[in-house]
RNA sequence: UCCCCGGUCGUUCAACGGUAGGACAGCGGCCUUUGACGUCGUGAAUCGUGGUUCGAAUCCACGCUGGGGAGCCA
């Protein structure tokens, strides 16, 4: 199973052959600490760390912390934890803020060479002078200040003599450029804010465009991989390092990950958290790395997913099904099997001795013989899944129904003899007779049954709270707010009211003491993971993902035909 | 209106002038003490029009179409 090649790998291979950078490969993963990492970042992490590893190079974890008003230490900590969990092995942790002094010195150098100037225009005036997509901008009246004046003003900006927004340092490039990023872009703005690392040491902060390339350069980055929206910034990235005459990393852009039914905008994820549409950044419904970890995803599954994505410049949208495929594949290999009944229906074996308890042997993981077996208590009164019984079974339904025989997994063959209903006509109890010759679920005489269902002994089962998750949004594109819907509607209108369902389930007693984070397959129901909200007397399970469900598919189709 | 980048099965990625292939999804068998897993099979695509060429998904031109771009955000 070799990885597919892609254009970035091809570029790196070509660069190594050309002895550019001395054959070195050095990448970086540069998040801004203004939120939690999400599955989209996993793609970038996988790419940057993966390429470095593949070519015997290095990858830095660098925080792009140039905007103190949005950044927090909490985010730095979570990002480090998430990158580590995903398996990223960084050469070092760096911060753009470590380079503030060097960046400042370089700015002075650009002023001296006549390539930068202090501009006194207000934000509104800057915007007006910038021109439009179709028309050129006009030069700032401060564009031709003398080097001396610029030097003095810039020093005073740094010294804190001016209020926020009153002045900027701009690169002197071309106000008529077709590329708006080249119309004398702002390099520094005044921000009297407390930075999470440098405190109040600085009151001027470099803009992304001025800080990023130079930070890459300082770290000796060879390939600066970023997402497509920075394509238009590349000429500016190149311009700065060329003017400065310093090491010139190559910026390469690729398409960011977009997933159906998933919101990737950090800003909007923040809104979900702040307005409590979800229970924090690590809510298992969130596409954040921490949310997915809590939900039960494994780092391997995320890595395999990211690896299988491919890298291109086509801005597309990946189906959520691909992600689910990778979790199932990984969990199938490693998750221990266990029986649990999500929506219990009482099943009574009329011909089973009242007080008898037998211990049935069950396989822990059919995919892994070394996982061994365990004993599960079996008795006269059991719980089975409500969905596994139908009084009037449709043609394709093979499970339990009046008169029909099925197998209780690892238990016995049982035949439904009668049902007990309440006054509303709902089935409250199912009565069966069992075949003593079928102990363990073995066919006594070659007799076949079409279904095997799971169960739990009523007297021995543990109660568990199970959290069933569906997609957070009802639409493939959460941002698709139909125009007819009243103005003011935003993506929250597409929130799925059924994204979380909490139910009381019955699980086999072997789950006693299961530790938070451990993952299981509840046979026939899906993969689950023990939530951190669990306590000694209360087990809480998150459903990571369902198993593929052939019956559901059949029924959906039948229902769809109507 | 201007600039940049794209357009290959439903989705995603490959094919780098020489047989359009994989994965997921779909469909249909087989297997099955999980309607799971596994396994076998199957349908399904080069945006259009010209041109270059023995030969074009690939090169060129024009058109169509999608994404990005006018933060003192990153």
Concise synopsis of the structure shown:
With 562 residues, this protein is of the alpha/beta class. It folds into 3 domains: 7-254, 3-Layer(aba) Sandwich (Rossmann fold), CATH 3.40.50; 266-336 and 464-482 and 490-558, Beta Barrel (Ribosomal Protein L25, Chain P), CATH 2.40.240; 340-454, Ribosomal Protein L25, Chain P, CATH 2.40.240.10.
Tally of discrete structural domains: 3
The best one-word shape is elongated
Based on DSSP secondary structure assignment, what is the total number of beta strands?
Answer: 25
Q: What's the pLDDT, averaged over the residues?
A: 96
Spans where pLDDT lies below 50 across 5 or more residues: none
**CATH domain topology of the largest domain:** Rossmann fold
The strand line-up of the biggest sheet is 10-23-24-25-21-22-11
From the N-terminal CA to the C-terminal CA, the straight-line distance is: 43 Å
Largest β-sheet summary? 7 strands, mixed
Structural class, from helix and strand content?
alpha/beta
CATH-derived architecture of the largest domain = 3-Layer(aba) Sandwich
CATH class descriptor of the largest domain: Alpha Beta
Find the CATH superfamily of the largest domain. HUPs
Share in β-strands: 15-25%
What Rg do the Cα atoms give?
A: 31 Å
Oligomer: single chain
